[in-house]
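ok, trying the design again with the full structure, not the truncated one.
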């Protein structure tokens, strides 16, 4: 019985390792790595950053490019749950685009709103948006600020 638990634990650990490898592999092996910054609340800029992501995907193909959109400051509004672009965000996520939301901005907006903003379920909170961009650039990502 004890051996069965050890075997099960090893299988679970292997599965977790493979799933984290798969999630990070797209970025590590992509021919192009792009990080898009959105820090502007203007709906035109939000649409523009999503258009740029779509154009990059069409040009390179989703198997050859890794794209992450990092939202911070007023640009976090793009990742609000009820943002008008939620359908486009889902479509981009389905094509492999990742969306990061700055925890510093979430906290500060929460103070102003009286509660944390409800985010799109595809938004992955990161400690700081700017730090996330720097970390991605250190991994070979090119920064684009539409």
């Amino acid at each position: 019985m004890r051996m069965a638990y050890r075997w099960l634990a090893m299988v679970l650990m292997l599965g977790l390792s493979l799933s984290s490898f798969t999630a990070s592999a797209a970025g590590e092996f992509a021919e192009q790595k792009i990080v898009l910054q959105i820090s502007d609340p203007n709906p035109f800029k939000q649409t523009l950053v999503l258009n740029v992501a779509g154009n990059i995907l069409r040009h390179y193909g989703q198997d050859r490019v890794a794209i992450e959109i990092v939202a911070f400051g007023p640009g976090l509004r793009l990742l609000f749950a009820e943002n008008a672009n939620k359908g486009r965000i889902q479509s981009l996520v389905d094509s492999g685009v990742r969306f990061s939301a700055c925890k510093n901005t979430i906290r500060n907006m929460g103070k102003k709103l009286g509660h944390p903003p409800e985010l799109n379920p595809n938004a992955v909170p990161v400690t700081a948006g700017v730090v996330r961009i720097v970390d991605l650039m250190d991994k070979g990502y090119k920064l684009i600020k539409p």
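Keeping the full-length input from now on. DSSP finds five helices and five strands in the chain.
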